Amino acid sequence: MSVKITFLGTGDASNSGGRAQQALLLTTSNFTLLVDCGANTLQRLQKMQIDPNTIDAVLFTHFHADHFLGTVHLDLSLIFDFPRKRNLLYLGPVGLKERCQQLFSLSYPRLYPNDNFVREMVEYAPHQKYTILDNKAIVETFPMEHAPESLGYRISIGGKCIAITGDTQWHDGIVDLAKDSDCLICECFHYKKPQPRIGHCSYEEIHENSTRIDTKKIILLHAHREVLEHREKVDFTIANDGDILDIE
Ligand SMILES: [Zn+2]
Ligand SMILES: [Zn+2]
Fold it and tell me: Does the record's keyword annotation contain Hydrolase (predicted)?
């Protein structure tokens, strides 16, 4: 078994370096999971010629706009451009239902709510394990240190284990999240350790702790300018928009 990771968007909220806001697509032979949906995600899907209707579930790490705002565009496209015939799962931290309602009704008050297709919304609590669609994926939730609702996910999918931090400052919970995983996808907004910590990881902290991180591969994203300027000094892969990684 294997899983394909498509890096649709690898940037931060400011689109530093011209990178699209965060969105990752995890695909197996029978399941497609979108993790986060930034403002540019629908455009990125179309650029990569991926039909949004192939997505079975959307999983959010938190509700900041660069991870969540594009949900309304994705949802709207499933009404008009890629008419959806089946349910769509929206999964994310507690507050997901209210945030979706707020986003949809604020953006297009005459179109929402609607029942063009069924949106199943499931809210995830920290320190829990959830199964998606008859074990097509198993998701373990780890609290992250960023927004109050922020969750990191350890996703067992296609026989592999992918750990995704979402946005967070460095903390030891990242070591737990990554334990025994095939891949850690870690945010890396800063190059140097910020003093005081302000909600994002730095390359210095990830590098300093890398011997404690028990994973086969560390991939960084959500890089701000400073990281991109120092990229030749960074020991780990910095994902680019459009990168595809097969984990076999
Ligand atoms: Zn972000
Ligand atoms: Zn954030």
Answer: yes
- Ligand that lies nearest to the alpha carbon of residue 67, given by its number in the listed order: 1
Q: In this predicted structure, what is the pLDDT of residue 105?
A: 96
- Report residue 183: phi and psi, to 5°: -160, 135
Q: How far, in Å, is the centroid of ligand 2 from the Cα of 95?
A: 15
Ligand 1 centre and the CA of 113: distance in Å? 27
Max intra-chain CA distance, the chain: 53
pLDDT of residue 228: 96
134 Cα–ligand 1 center, Å: 30
How much is the pLDDT for 157? 97
CA neighbours within 13 Å on the CB side: how many for 41? 32
Domain 3-247 falls in which CATH fold? Metallo-beta-lactamase; Chain A (3.60.15)
CA 21 / ligand 2 centre spacing (Å): 11
Cα 110 to middle of ligand 1, angstroms: 29
* CA atoms of 69 and 90, how far apart (whole Å): 13
What tokens were used for 164?
Answer: 């995704």
The confidence score (pLDDT) of residue 1 equals 85
85 Cα: distance to centroid of ligand 2 (angstroms) = 32
- Could you read off the pLDDT of 47-76 as tens digits, one per residue? 999 999 999 999 999 999 999 999 999 999
Residue 149 φ then ψ, to 5°: -90, -5
From ligand 1's centre to the CA of 1, what distance in Å?
31
CB neighbourhood size of 187 (10 A):
27
Please write the tens of the pLDDT for every residue from 174-223.
999 999 999 999 999 999 998 888 899 999 999 999 999 999 999 999 99
